[in-house]
Specification:
The chain is 79% helix and 0% strand. The protein is built from 3 helices and no strands.
Length: 67
């Protein structure tokens, strides 16, 4: 995990570079959208770790049940 505002993290820069390469190969809008969605997920995973997603899902399930 890296600090939230750390923009020069080597791992995060590599993730971004891979996303740009994948995006450049995309041929349809759907493929481009998928590339950028994956970049967002991988960036969040790197910054906050796997526990962030499980906590997010748990909070969402709790909110849905409470409605």
């Amino acid at each position: 995990m890296c600090a939230k505002r750390q923009r020069r993290c080597p791992a995060l820069l590599a993730i971004r570079e891979e996303a740009v390469e994948e995006w450049a190969k995309a041929e349809t809008f759907e493929e481009v959208r998928s590339c950028w969605a994956r970049l967002g997920g991988r960036t969040t995973l790197h910054r906050y770790g796997r526990r962030y997603f499980s906590e997010l899902a748990r909070r969402r399930r709790t909110a849905v049940r409470g409605s």
